[in-house]
Amino acid sequence: MLQPDYFDPAASDTVSGTSSSVTSSSVASAQTQSEHHNAKQKREFNKLQKRLRRDVGNAIIDYQMIGEGDKVMVCLSGGKDSYTMLEILLNLQRNAPVKFSLVAVNMDQKQPGFPEHVLPQYLDKVGVEYHILERDTYSVVKEKTPEGKTTCALCSRLRRGSLYGFAEEIGATKIALGHHREDILETLFLNMFFGGTLKAMPPKLLSDDGKNIVIRPLAYCKEADITEFSRLMEFPIIPCNLCGSQPNLQRQIVKDMLAEWDKKHPGRLESMFKAMTNVAPSQLADRRLFDFAGLEAKQAALMEGRIHALTVD
After folding, report:
1. Is 132 in a helix, a strand, or coil?
2. Where are the beta strands (DSSP E) in 212-304?
3. Which of 55, 161, 185, 232 could pair with 220 as two cysteines, CB 3.0-4.6 Å apart?
4. HSE-up of 257 (CA within 13 Å, CB side)?
5. Rounded to the nearest 5 degrees, what angle is found at the Cα of 151, between the Cα atoms of 145 and 153?
């Protein structure tokens, strides 16, 4: 409870000079702390941006994703990954050793409540060429998917088909998708656990019909870096109301598993991703990739060569 002398004009007069001095000192100290904090934040942001640029640049170089004269169709969903991909590609475009163009494409799937104004406003502000492709895949997915089943598989197929066709219409030579390192690892484990196949998402892919080349510039990027970059950039995120609220998604279960591994065993995800780039077919069991049936013939040829070498004299 306040004491009476707080309201005593005489008391206020006697301490006014000291109070002013203390206040000025406090303000100056707060300003200095704020400046140090802002400078630190700026340094951390610059480090993060450089790391993402380096990871994307290395992926582009390693897999020759973008070449001279390419027209890259950047697929935007309104999520953190695709926003980050567009921003980093625009950044790299300014100093790239090759000339290429970017066109952003968003597919409006006619989900109820979809904020149609958000992406056009953002893309107008950024100043990049863009198209909004309207396809009512939402109704198709809801009609075709049985109650209680997840919608992701059908939704992604319909979306992919529409985007592939539109890429041809606008003359795009590459289609850029915003899948990052964890997306690729999750797909690897999903296929192993539920599909019985050892495959994931390649950084560069030729579509089945041979008409489109798909690239994943964020293949080397950590999801945590993308999340933080998106937060600092304050991207206008659009949530997916079609599949984002589905419980017990297999991908979410695998995602949680990988996150737990990464927390308990730092470096494990890096090692697993490196393993995907360092495959030894002879140490697996796929007869299409390695000639196990021909090992005896190879052995005989090697033994014959050794005998000849020993009897040369």
Report:
1. strand
2. 213-215
3. 55
4. 14
5. 105
